[in-house]
Amino acid sequence: MEATATTSKVLMFWLAVTCIAAVASAVAPLGSPVATQDLGGCIKSFVSIEGCVEAINDALRNKVYDGLKHECCTAITQLGDNCLPLLFPDQPVVPFILKAVCKLIGGDAPPPY
């Protein structure tokens, strides 16, 4: 029963994220600290990158980190310091986990050419 409640909360959160991002407007490039100081800018940074929301969800729920690609990790590492706590207010370790995983897997570095 608790798993169903948790799943419902996660789905409701991402539904809210998607809805807010749809109406959010950015005043600076996505992923920059200037544009992501409010909730709408924070959300738009993730939703604008294909597969990023799903990769973050998979990383946090299933401990599967291979979906965190370069673009997603760039958005995560370039966010303002208050952005991830706004998105995950009841989970204070999430910002540290996401940023650490991106650094460990090298997702925050430019892809080699």
Strand content: under 5%
Compute the CA-based radius of gyration.
14 Å
Question: In which range does the helix fraction lie?
Answer: 55-70%
Count of runs of 4 or more consecutive helical residues: 6
The computed structural class is: mainly alpha
* Molecular shape: globular
Would you summarize the structure shown here?
This protein is mainly alpha-helical. 60% of the residues lie in helices and 0% in strands.
Question: Could you walk me through the main structural features you see in this protein, from its secondary elements to its overall organization?
Answer:
The protein has 113 residues and is mainly alpha-helical. Helices cover 60% and strands 0% of the residues. It has six helices and no strands. The protein is globular. The N and C termini lie far apart (48 Å). 26% of the residues are buried. The model is unreliable at 22-36 (pLDDT under 50).
Keywords:
mainly alpha, 113 residues, 60% helix, 6 helices, globular
Secondary structure elements and pairings:
Elements: H1 2-23, H2 39-47, H3 52-62, H4 70-78, H5 83-87, H6 94-105
Helix pairs in contact: 1-2, 4-6
